[in-house]
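If your schedule permits, I should be very grateful for your opinion on a structural question. Thank you for your consideration; the sequence and its tokens are set out here:

===
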Amino acid sequence: MLLVVITPLIIPVTATEPNQLNNLQFGAPLPFIQQEILLEPPEKWFPNRMTIMNPWEHPTKIIWANFITSTVIISVGLIVLSRALARYLR
């Protein structure tokens, strides 16, 4: 679960136009944090890679279904990978 929780902090999202700042989605493998970036950047600013910003300054919503699904996907992947590695090393 820790791996899923840190993905919004390390995986940036690219905004290519100003109206995308109203609904940026962060997280992996499924986006589970939705944030509205309250900025008025100049047109030359795009495209721009952004990471999650302070949730106290920018409206933020957690999509719990995507968070749980992302955690399950990563957990199953790590279990399969560890079992395959254990069989390979025997």
Q: What stands out?
A: The two ends are 28 Å apart (CA to CA). Residues 32 and 63 are 5 Å apart (CA to CA). The helical segments are 2-10, 64-89.
